């Protein structure tokens, strides 16, 4: 598949999902959760991730809802209960997603910055969770910080924009927790997404990385590996 064909396929597939992408026709009403293939989160050895064993404040990276789109999984310092309605760049509202797990502190977000598409990669990572610095704007103990253009997001409040040039929150990944096994499954997402721009911008690289053109556009499902960010990326920038 040539690059132009690949980009067209990406755009058509993303628009078909109705995820509010630029250049796609869509309804003007509130954004609704979108369901994708159910994916169990596992560690690099293939063992199920368990909410109670995740470390607080650690960045875990997995790929969802597509095999080529990175997402973050966090266990935060306390329960996550978004404070109010969120909206995408076009003003369409949606509800934040509460945390899951034994103490309601586990959340997941799309790891592609909505401004310049910075995202975790094996070579270089500009965006990650870190502790809020003394005197830094905000009240949450952690922030998601993108060092490319200094956008910051609040992981305790639906990845709402704290400051910087980003014009909408990071999309929330829907995660289900099984209290009996303590396992975690990704099931969908809600919020404004940038997949069309991402696929168009990185089409050539995605083709190379995934070998099979269609593979880069496939939905993630089955067992999906979550890596610690420092193990996944060779160079994580902090700011």
From TrEMBL:
Domain Rieske residue range list: 73-184
Single GO MF annotation: 2 iron, 2 sulfur cluster binding
Domain of life: Bacteria
Keyword Cytoplasm found: no
InterPro entries (alphabetical): Rieske_2Fe-2S, Rieske_2Fe-2S_sf, TAT_signal_bac_arc
PROSITE patterns given in the database record: PROKAR_LIPOPROTEIN, RIESKE
SUPFAM superfamilies with a match to the protein in the record: ISP domain
Keywords, alphabetical: 2Fe-2S, Iron, Iron-sulfur, Metal-binding, Signal
Protein name according to UniProt: Twin-arginine translocation signal domain-containing protein
